[in-house]
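Give me the fold.
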Amino acid sequence: AKIPLGREGAPQDVSNVALFLASELSDYLTGEIIEINGGLFMR
């Protein structure tokens, strides 16, 4: 199966989300499941 974003995930992709979640930019975000999969498992 091809990944819609055209590449495999990298550690930087996960760390970017972790940094976002640790920042004030996510202060109104609650109870989410964030899939970091390049769109491979789109719902």
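Helices lie at 11-22.
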